[in-house]
Design brief:
By secondary structure, the protein is an all-alpha fold. It has 4 helices and no strands. It has a domain of 35 residues. The chain is elongated.
């Protein structure tokens, strides 16, 4: 094979490897940053109070159920069974010298 000829099998393998490498780490977060070079800056807060504004935005989104992943009525534990126990003081006090 000459220098100018391309190997179709090698190109197919390279394309498959590139597609597999692109899937590593899962999908990119939807943070509104179009430029991949700016993504680390946005994730780090761009020097603004160590990302406080981003964390505050995520808290607000979570509190308003913007992600639609958590629902208080569905995720709350079942109510406790009523108890007939009577709570009061201890029968005996533990002496201080023990």
């Amino acid at each position: 094979m000459g220098e100018n000829e391309r190997d179709p099998i090698a190109e197919e393998e390279a394309d498959a490897a590139a597609a597999e490498a692109a899937r590593i780490g899962g999908p990119a977060p939807d943070d509104g940053v179009d430029d991949p070079a700016q993504r680390p800056l946005a994730e780090g807060g761009e020097g603004e109070a160590e990302g406080f504004e981003l964390a505050e935005g995520e808290l607000i989104d979570n509190a308003e159920h913007g992600d639609q992943k958590r629902f208080p009525n569905r995720d709350a534990p079942p109510p406790e069974e009523p108890s007939s126990a009577v709570y009061g003081e201890a029968d005996q006090e533990i002496p201080a010298d023990e």
